[in-house]
Specification:
Order of helices and strands: HEHEHH
Structural class: mainly alpha
Distance between the termini: 35 Å
Strand order of the largest sheet: 1-2
Shape: globular
Largest sheet: 2 strands, parallel
Number of strands: 2
Strand content: 5-15%
Oligomer: single chain
Radius of gyration: 14 Å
Length: about 100
């Protein structure tokens, strides 16, 4: 949310609270400002699962592991929402997941 200027921290906090309220089971965030969203999520949902990353590679590794584990344990559909500013180039997360799915097929 770098594009929103000084309102960025407020919007990140609102996002974290909203994710908790909506029942998001796992929140993984990337980038400096997204730490605010992680903290707000955990404050609103103390037993929730949220983790902040400063490195894309670690986020991808943990996400792929989580998706694989959930698929194996529950044999269900898993929904992953990837959201970020263009600056963060979050399409790299989608590309990594797509490669993992192809490798497992």
């Amino acid at each position: 949310m770098g594009e929103v200027g000084i309102q960025g921290p407020e919007f990140h906090e609102e996002l974290g609270r909203y994710a908790a309220k909506c029942g998001i089971e796992h929140l993984l965030t990337l980038g400096d400002s997204s730490q605010i969203a992680t903290a707000a999520y955990l404050k609103a949902k103390p037993n929730g699962h949220a983790k902040h990353y400063s490195e894309l590679s670690q986020l991808n590794q943990d996400l792929q592991s989580q998706v694989s584990r959930e698929s194996l344990e529950h044999a269900s559909v898993i929904t992953v929402l990837v959201k970020g500013s263009r600056f963060m180039r979050m399409e790299r997360v989608v590309e990594a997941l797509q490669q993992e799915i192809k490798a497992c097929s």
